[in-house]
Amino acid sequence: MTTETTSTKAEKGLSRRTLLKTGAAAVGAIAGSGAITGFPTIWAKTNITLRQFGTGVSNINAIAEKCKADLGITLEMTATDSDAAAQRAVTQPDSYDIADIEYWIAKKVFPTGALQPMDVKKLKYYDKIVPLFIDGKMKPDSVIAQGTAPHTVGFVEAQGSKKFAKEPTQWMTMVPTIYNADTLGIRPDLVGRDISSWADIMDPKFKGKTSILNIPSIGIMDAAMIMEAMGNLKYADKGNMTKEEIDKTIEFLIKAKGDGQFRAFWKSFDESVNLMASGEVVIQSMWSPAVAAVRSKGIACKYQPLKEGYRAWGGGLGLASHLKGAELDAAYEYINWYTSGWVGGYLNRQGYYSACMETAKGFMTADEWGYWIEGKPAQGDILSPEGKVMEKAGAVRDGGSFEARMGAVACWNSVMDEDRYMVRRWNEFIAA
C-alpha cells in the first residue's frame, strides 16, 4: 500500500466555494446543531464531499459506500503507508478534510496546527468510547503500557491549544476508531516447534525465513520486544529510548541482518501476506487481518500470543484545521455515523477492535461477538465482512478475548524524544 490509490471518486456537483455561498451552509448549521436528525436527504442535496486519507487498514471502499447510502455524503479515500500518512498530514494540510491516522502520528501532527481539536459535546457516542482512549486503562486496576498510549495525546488543553492535556478535557485531538494488539504471525506447519516468545524470531533455525516491518516507529518497538525477551537489554521505557538504547538496538539488528536472519522487511499489508502465504517467511511481525488473509487462502497461519505481551496501536479520525461551516458540520455528522456501530461491527469482523464496542455489538451476531470479542469457540462458520469463510465452527480466536489481548499490551507504537535520531539509525539498518 505504498502507492496512493484514490478508491472512491468524488461525484460531480457544486464546488466547495459555491456550496458555502449557497444555502448549504445554513442547512449544515441546522444539522450540526442537532435540531434535526436522520437527514441523508439534506446532505445529498448539498453534494458535500469529504476527502479522507490514511493507512490502508481502515480506508475501505465498503465504508465509503455505506456512508454515501446512509448520509448522502461522498467520501473520497486515499490509502498510504504510515510514514507517507504522517508526512502528508503535516506538509499538505489543505489536501484532506479527514485524517485517518494512528496516535503516534497524531503526536507528530497535532502540534503543527494541521488538525483542529474536536468538541466532545458534539460527539454523540463520546460516552461509549472504551476507557483505554480516555484514561489509558482497560480496567481501573490496569497498568498503563509504555510508548505513546493514545490517551496521552488524545486531548488538548483548550479549543485553540496545540498542547496535549494530562487529563481528559472538552477538546479531543481525534475520535478513536480502530486499534489492536499485535504480535508475531507464524506458519505452524513450517516452524516445527512451539513459539512462545518474541525471542523466537531470532532462533538460528529460522535463518533467512523471518521478517520484521520497515516502518521505523513500529519496527523499533518490535525490536525492543525481541531485545528484552532475549535478555539483551532492559529499557527504562521502550517507547522513549535513550540514544544509547537506540544504538544498541540498531547494532543488534544490523548484526542479525548481516548474519542472514531476515528474509525481508515489509511495509504494506499485502507484502506481509505474500511473504507468509508463499512460505518464504515462517515467522514475522504481522497484523491480525493479514493472518486472516493468509488463512482465507487455506494456508495455516497463526497470530501467536507471546509471554512478554503484545505491541499495540490505535487510530482515529482527525479534522483538518481548514474545515468550517457546512463542511465542518458534515464532518462531525460523518464521525457520529462512524461511531454509531455499523463500521465498528465491520472492523471487529476483520480482527481489529472498535473504539465504541457497545454500538458495534448491535451490528454483530451473538456468535460473531462471542468469537471476536469474548474469546468463545465459534458456533458456526465465521465470515469476513465480505462474506468469505474465515474460521470454521469450533475455532477460538488466537489470543482469546478482547480483555485478554488488550489487557496484555506491553507497549504502544510510539514517537520518542529522540525520534529523528532513531529514524536515521533505522534507515542505516535497512541500508546495511
UniProtKB/TrEMBL annotation:
Q: Which UniProt keywords apply?
A: Periplasm, Signal
Against InterPro entries, the record matches this protein to: SBP (IPR006059), TAT_signal (IPR006311)
The record's listing under Pfam families reads: SBP_bac_8
What name does the UniProt record give this protein?
Putative spermidine/putrescine transport system substrate-binding protein
Task: Read off the lineage from the record.
Answer: Bacteria, Pseudomonadati, Pseudomonadota, Alphaproteobacteria, Hyphomicrobiales
